[in-house]
Amino acid sequence: MSGAGKVVCVTGASGYIASWLVKLLLQRGYTVKATVRNLSDPNKVAHLKELEGAEERLHLFEANLIEDGSFDSVVRGCEGVFHTASPVLFEVTDPQAQLIEPAVNGTLNVLISCSKEPSVRRVVLTSSIAAVVFNPSPKGPDVIVDETWFSDPVFCEEIKAWYYMAKTLAEEAAWKFSKENGIDLVVMNPGFVTGPMLQPTPNCSTEIFLDFMKGKGVLPSYQIVDVRDVAQAHVSGFENPSAHGRYLLTERAVTRSHVLEILQKLRPSLNLPKFPVGEPTHQACNKRAQDLGVVFTPFEVSLKDMVESIEESILLS
Length: 317
Known about the structure:
The chain has helices spanning 16-27, 42-49, 54-57, 72-75, 95-115, 153-158, 162-181, 204-213, 227-239, 256-266, 287-291, 299-312, and strands at 7-11, 31-36, 58-62, 80-83, 122-126, 144-145, 185-190, 192-194, 222-226, 245-249, 252-254, 283-284.
């Protein structure tokens, strides 16, 4: 177990990606200091406490993204810090207060704490494809997006894509601060995340699919990646000494009609909406992630596991 004797921190540990990350880190022998917003909320901590190795090597802390110094004591003694905590909201009344400030200031708060702690040798940040593709550049089925692409905050603001703007500004702030303060930063940019849940309540990804399965929602075309692969990429991004820069995490581009076709085979009884056959809005290059050692789970497997996970959580009742 390569993590034996090593201490790492995971922020926002109760989340969809972070829960799998904590699980994988514990499996690899790490001692994990994990932060949540509310230690007294069983929906946030119960599933983490049940993970294998949690009793011996998982330590939970309460921390607030927008509270200065909130992460100082948590990162103390850690070799690696995985910053996954960030608000995920697509409908907001005050984007600055609800999304942008917590995302940007929260990222800076964590990095400031890391800059004061000599033991921290690398920070792995969970960004998003939202910080990659939202710009005015022409796109089409033959366009290949890679890590050199960056979203444009001005463009995001113009189209009122507040979540995408928040992720873009947070990643920009992270790169700037890290370069100015000598922090070894690695950034993960996952596409739309699918796969099974560990947490008991749905997140944005599962809620979108849940609505879609009930025939109510609209599912856009997406770059898809399995949550377990995202967790693996984070760990590899920390453990591999040569890891650097950004990593675009996507198994493939899918369309609504493709998702519909797979869901119809999985659950023929569902009243699914109908969509015309279309093409992906763009392709994405995952070569850097593969070079890091990430083996991507086929979307068909990921979607099947996600559907079963949703049903097991009795979210369709």
